[in-house]
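Priority: low. Protein: Mannosyltransferase. Input follows.
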Amino acid sequence: MLLLRWLWIGNGNDGEIPPIAVFWTLRVLMFVISFVLEDWAIHELVQKPRNRRVAVLLVASSYVTWTFQTHTFSNSIETLIVAWCLVLIERIVASPQQSSVLASAVLGFLAMFGVFNRITFPAFVLIPGIRLVPYYWKHPGSLAMIVLAGAYTAFFAIAVDTAFYTKHSISWSDLIYHPVLTPLNNLLYNIQPSNLAQHGLHPRYQHLLVNLPQLLGPAIILLFTRPHRSFHLYSAISGIFVLSILQHQEARFLLPTIPLILSSIRLPKKETTLRVWVVSWIVFNLIFGTLMGIYHQGGIIPAQVFMSRQPDATQAVWWKTYMPPVWLLNGKNEVLRTRDVMGMDGDLLLEELTQLATCDTPADRRNMEYLKEKNGTYLIAPLSASWLDPYLQNKGLEGLRFREVWRYEKHLNLDDLDFAEDGFWNTIARVVGRRGLAIWRVTKSCRK
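Result:
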């Protein structure tokens, strides 16, 4: 970010970088980091040249690499940390007679950083980490180094989190008596079923039977028919097992397992079978790459950029979408309050909008004149939210009025699939046929 600021100023601009420029810089940065570190880790983990070439090709051609790994997801970062912890474990175990003080220090840092990044991290390194026990039993110096590096990283992370979440300037007493322990808070939150219910409860077979095939496609067949046993495959299996115990299961939670699995399978031997598999692999990744990389919740970022340019916007209600990143508002979040109501019931949504909506004025009825108003309430929702249809056409004197001011077609709300109530084809027709994200300016009739 400091380098970006220098480049920005060097090109004749001021020091204020537009958030969308930061957004794309982070995307490119994640692409470069994944391109270098992920491939490098695979080169280290897969020893045989032929298997290594296949592994690198499979990981590079997977839509998971194109989409999820180019995002700043904590899961994407976890993927890189897990891979490099396994690399360091392999290096240490492979040379037990040599001192691995430096490798142990880096491993201690990465392991603790992984815990503070996501509390699920230990699940992926538990089985491979057991191999280190005999080594550290014989090398207490390396053991001391990994403990010291981990302790220092933990202290630094706690200090940063405490400073971030404390309103006043922190002192040593705050760190001692009132530290912010992010992994502990995360754990305490996630062991409460009532908290998980807000994000969605899933059956414990969701990861194995739904999410993993969604991420691997045809490669899931080779995982069960032609696996290459390795410790990084055992790492993936242990991660899947532990994550399956939890009741909230999203596909992105399994991201660290994908490069580990793809580097632990062998392609079919028969030429005909191989051709069929390759074609299915290409088709699968093209379809899901387009779906997840372009359409799935694709309107969130453009919508937030649009909202940052609305001078009258003071209230924004986001319904049936992902949580919008408020930092993209370019400082407008000081006057614009963003409300993420997620899957709120429609009647409650109308009550919320009724309280927030401004009174309808002559300016609201003229083209673009409403932008001169001091306050404005906006609703951001997918076009597939058919519940809104009866209210959008209101032209009368009573009730809420919705004026569409923006629309983005490349948006699919895959979290609004309701096959049980609407049926399969009706749900597909609604979600796919009515794809898109819209923004309405909401007003109401006020009696004088």
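The longest strand covers residues 400-408. DSSP finds 23 helices and six strands in the chain.
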